[in-house]
What does this fold into?
Amino acid sequence: MLEDKNQERTSLAELGEFGLINHLTKHFKIHHSSTVKGIGDDAAVVNTEGNELLVTTDLLVEGIHFDLSYMPLKHLGYKAVMVNLSDVYAMNGQANQITVSLAVSNRFPLEALEELYAGIQLACNTYNVDLIGGDTTSSTKGMLISVTALGTAKKEDIVYRNGAKPTDLIVVSGDLGGAYLGLQVLEREKQVFQVNPQNQPDLDKYTYIIERQLKPEARKDIPELLKELEVKPTAMIDISDGLSSEIMHICTQSKVGCKLYEEKLPLDPQVISTCEEFDLDSTMIALSGGEDYELLFTVSLSDYDKIKGNPNLTVIGHIAEENEGMNLVTRANQEMALKAQGWNSFKGKE
Amino acid sequence: MLEDKNQERTSLAELGEFGLINHLTKHFKIHHSSTVKGIGDDAAVVNTEGNELLVTTDLLVEGIHFDLSYMPLKHLGYKAVMVNLSDVYAMNGQANQITVSLAVSNRFPLEALEELYAGIQLACNTYNVDLIGGDTTSSTKGMLISVTALGTAKKEDIVYRNGAKPTDLIVVSGDLGGAYLGLQVLEREKQVFQVNPQNQPDLDKYTYIIERQLKPEARKDIPELLKELEVKPTAMIDISDGLSSEIMHICTQSKVGCKLYEEKLPLDPQVISTCEEFDLDSTMIALSGGEDYELLFTVSLSDYDKIKGNPNLTVIGHIAEENEGMNLVTRANQEMALKAQGWNSFKGKE
It folds into this structure.
């Protein structure tokens, strides 16, 4: 990133904190009348217009959650917003505002932060979200981004994790495992580059999975689609830590079991071919690869007709009684207990 | 902190992220019926009960904003909450909820985070605030705390920075400069300790200013007092970066000037005596020492009778026309232009 020595480098200290925030946010526009006051006072002022407020926050740390040697800063800004909006959509809500706090070491020039904010701005414009505040400070090492997202939903529309009932269908949006495999490709290319910096990687056959890793999209369309279809899920969660870990959250909080069917898991052809190339089991990757930011939800069996055949949605199993446990039914028709091999930032993959 | 080798040390990796959050937050209780759903889903759910929502966020970074060699973790947790609540009170609002995100390196055992959360919990209980979410992750170096506070206010009660008018009185709560001087004392003792670890410092004569630094209190009482007195300020801000910098924010946003009177600045006797000891000008410290977390506000001249004589409030000057500039009137009756020598984390004191 920004290794071109001829590029302009403006030191952050020159601007000071207020100058920096003003500089970085001056081109952001406000989309919502509910944003009464954005950046520029002690606190932002928001009107929830009679709806319930949804609040979620995520922290991304350089060296733990992202590697700037292959993550362009603009993509990082975009992704930091997506990760948070995804949580609002997982409540069946509409995302309206974000705050962005940033800690950066002095190794970053102003131009790097401009790139980061260009990605944040693109996310705000694409997802119709207002940047209403934040904090910007130096760090002793690396970069850290803390985003809080605010959304709204009617009280009766909110979907929690704890409402799944036996016989409910388990549904997932999009496809699974791509983001994790994209990361494996990028990590491999980084190592190749370290050995031979002249090597020009041919990444054409990985474009989809690399985009899933570097520029994920939160599923704003799914709450909208569900409304259109007149389906209210009984439970919902977003897939940040992997399908297995997320369905286990739903089951534990709903006090139920589940059966997932291996043959039903939606996989992109690039996921299948890359799994073969890396000698990885694609089912394992679909279950435990994180960062897909798809939505996982359960619906009443009586809603099946409304969702079947929808290209955005795949039925992958059903909820069972609690004493039946949480299982994957393999292609060979064997039941295997699910494991939560989600991401644990304190020790990496569990 | 926690240098006693006999103390228990539980590694964070043993618990994992979800176990850690559960462990740290299980004793927190919910104070507000407006907190519909706290920790445990994709997002928290809050009901603003017909009021406007206030949102503010601050980031505290080890080595930039705090030094764990003299800042006990419990105090740090308390202070991280105070810094944010102060911004809600500065809007003339009531603080109701917070989220706390934490990045910590593996050098911190679980017991250290328990101390930190004990301070957060004390702040929540004392200030009647609910912890409703957050994120906990590892960092490659040091500790970083990101807090977002949510509050509410009736639309007609909110006080912005931009409403000050010429002839308005400038009022400050409490006294000024203590927190900065407390930091100077702690920094000096740290250096003494490094030279002679056996030295037992006698800090009795600095108790007030050290407490101002290590355990500041946000002025929850001031919006309440103003309501009681039937005074609505025309502009308000909290003093985090120093009086001079903050009054300049009010003046700039309100497009007015001001006169502050040196002889009116409220100083605690410990501030005066410690300034003498350190050979510092107490007026300079009152103007530019940050972190007091007092409230600075302007009121209409017609409200003078309501606030005069109140032991919590001091009238320190008045608003002037914009073309008169922003000035301090010294004891010798000379006018000096104010300078914003606030804290700039990218280069320290500006």
Observations:
- Chain A touches chain B through 72 residues (CB under 8 Å).
- The radius of gyration of chain A is 21 Å.
- The first strand of chain A starts at residue 35 and ends at 37.
- Residues 20 and 83 of chain A are 24 Å apart (CA to CA).
